[in-house]
Amino acid sequence: MADTEQTSPPPRQGPVQFMLSNKLETAMWLSRIFTVYCSILFILPILGLPEAANFYQRALLANALTSALRLHQRLPHFQLSRAFLAQALQEDSCHYLLYSLILVNSYPITMSIFPVFLFSLLHATSYTKKVLDEMGPNSMGFMRNFLNKLTANQQNILMFIACNEIFLMPATIFLLFSGQGSLLQPFIYYRFVTLRYASRRNPYCRTLFTELRVLVEHLIMKPSCPAFLRRMCLNSIALVSRLAPTAA
Prior knowledge:
Blueprint: H1 15-20, H2 23-43, H3 52-74, H4 82-88, H5 92-103, H6 110-135, H7 141-152, H8 154-177, H9 185-197, H10 204-220, H11 227-243
Helix pairs in contact: 2-3, 2-6, 3-5, 3-6, 5-9, 6-7, 6-8, 8-9, 8-10, 10-11
């Protein structure tokens, strides 16, 4: 007689025990939630807090902590070598660790907080779902619906993040000439943009650069476009193309 007994699913651990058994993932999840919290208080100072700029720094520092933990997870064996540094610079977590360190002491602008806010929100989604599953399959339905909507719009959110990454480059130059930025910041941020352009995991920055080039070329080739503006745009496109790194 065939054995018809079905294997029952493993019992749930409970949310607290689940988080304790995944300490590194839990630490990154909590730091991402804190990043989202501080970002919201900076972007929408609904409480009228005078120290809104402090939340800007806290969000970037929390993101730096998350990025450092994620980098340790990806490359657990640290080595003081050029090869290890080259390998680390290929990781997106290293890019955003650098991003946070570049901007943490700069003049706070809303555009620069959106990437860390949205990345933290997106990356916290999958772990939040796991925590909700440990609470029960039907727990907090409104939260599950919100997380599902985030996942469904992930591509649009990543394109918006890439747009912020690109347009922060001229913003750092503007801050320099307005007296609110440092001389080194545009050069260091340029290095960040080149890392994002050559990213193996996230092609959205590279895709958006291509789409912007096609759009600008389409507009300036219209007969109504002044000749001097056409020449200026073509020279700018040529400059950006020369500065672009070789994609991986």
